[in-house]
Amino acid sequence: MRRIEFPDGFTWGAATSSFQIEGAWNEDGKGESIWDLASHTPGIIKNNDTADIACDHYHQYKEDVQIMKKMGLKAYRFSIAWPRIFPRGQGEINPKGVQFYDNLINELLANGIEPFTDLYHWDLPLALNRLGGWENREVGDAYVEYATFIFNHYGDRVKNWITFNEPMIFALYYYILGLYGKKGNFSGGICASHLVNVAHAKAIKAYRSCEYPDGKIGITLNPFPLYPITESALDKEAVTVVDGLVNRWFLDPVFKASYPPDTFELLSKTIDLSLITENDLKLLKENPMDFLGINLYSCWRIGARKKEDLNNLFKLIGKLATPLKNKKNIESSETGWEVYPEGLFDILKRIDYDYNHPLIYITENGMACKDDIIVGRIVQDDDRLSYLKRYIEKASKAMNDGVNLKGYFVWSLMDNFEMFEGYEKKFGLIKIDYETQERIWKKSALWYRDMIKANSFPFS
Ligand code: FCB
């Protein structure tokens, strides 16, 4: 048994997002988001669950902040629901929505918890989706208007900002799934991913010239550790191809103000990429970010059956969405995602090396597991506990190996509405009894509390 130690000042936190926990979907002047529409449309979400009430955090935020305090969290990562602030996405501001985040931020600060504020965790105002969503440059400009307001209003108290959460998912994968309209809209997703990068750069520019530019601003990506299924040259090549699209297509623009040439070339065979202009890349170059947030849960094992597969990125990526469930000898979570802690180490080292030693926060890491065994009012989530210990140990190993990692956030503070999966998949440190809205501690939450207190934990 040895002790895994963390440096003083390491930021321990937990993360949530507005749509997944707040509820109050149409209260106090909030506008509708694309996820309100999706969850109110039968057949999209598992069991037709909605997030109308979710964890009722909108009303219970004070109690939730007390839980964070008891857990000893140094920081809390939450997102702002854009349609609470601008019900139609732009133009008129909703003072009651603004007040809610004032209250939350003040409550956090009064309890010694640092806010890490995510401007966009997928709940696009519906009115903007009707304009074409992220495929339309004007939507990016509406986002910058929203971001500018947020920086000027909350920036006196919030010093850590995240422009976007996981563009790979909302600006590419969801286009492929058809959440925003027609299914399989790969080219729309590629356009959207670029315009999101442009909006990211413009938001950074707006931040640097806002009234309180003295904090740090970054983006959260979800880079995947990728491994070939076999050692064959074809499988290894497949890894490079997929890596280009799911990793470098998102990392390169925000770090290097360019797109990976191999992926660009491959995509340009079937997609018109002329919307990527010199001017856009210049904007990215002139507005570098301060840190990278990484969300990491699992890894992907990649293989290709024939050479031609490599030319069809869309098909190759489609196959990856198949969960690993029922595969023998592979440890996986309730979502079917492989548990492979070494993947976190690999990604951290690789990003450190490829992108010139950036400041990194792990902005999400965690797992879905069962919560049906309760002993003495504590949920026995031993699988999660084991997962967290092993992943956090790899984070420490990467730091000892020189990676500039400054913080770690568990996904999630509490069970919540897991998008397409509804309430079935449970990621929380705290269980929510949705009938009573009671908050119930899990074993992992108690361990996390003790670990934060000691800033270290025994590991074998
Ligand atoms: C991430 C999302 C987060 C949550 C987890 C399980 O992709 O950022 O909101 O749904 O997955």
User: pLDDT under 50 segments (min length 5)?
Assistant: 321-326
Q: What is the average of the pLDDT values?
A: 95
Taken together, the total number of domains comes to 1
Distance between the termini: 5 Å
Ligand inventory? beta-D-fucopyranose
Tell me the name of the CATH class: Alpha Beta
CATH superfamily: Glycosidases
Query: Would you tell me which CATH topology applies?
Result: TIM Barrel
Oligomer: single chain
CATH architecture: Alpha-Beta Barrel
Query: Mind telling me the C-alpha Rg?
Result: 21 Å
**What percentage of the residues does DSSP assign to strands (E)?**
15-25%
- What structural class do helix, strand and pairing data support? alpha/beta
- How many helices in DSSP terms? 16
**Spatial strand order of the main sheet:** 2-3-4-5-6-8-10-13
Shape: globular
Main pleated-sheet profile: 8 strands, parallel, barrel
Q: Give the helix proportion (percent range).
A: 40-55%
Number of strands: 16
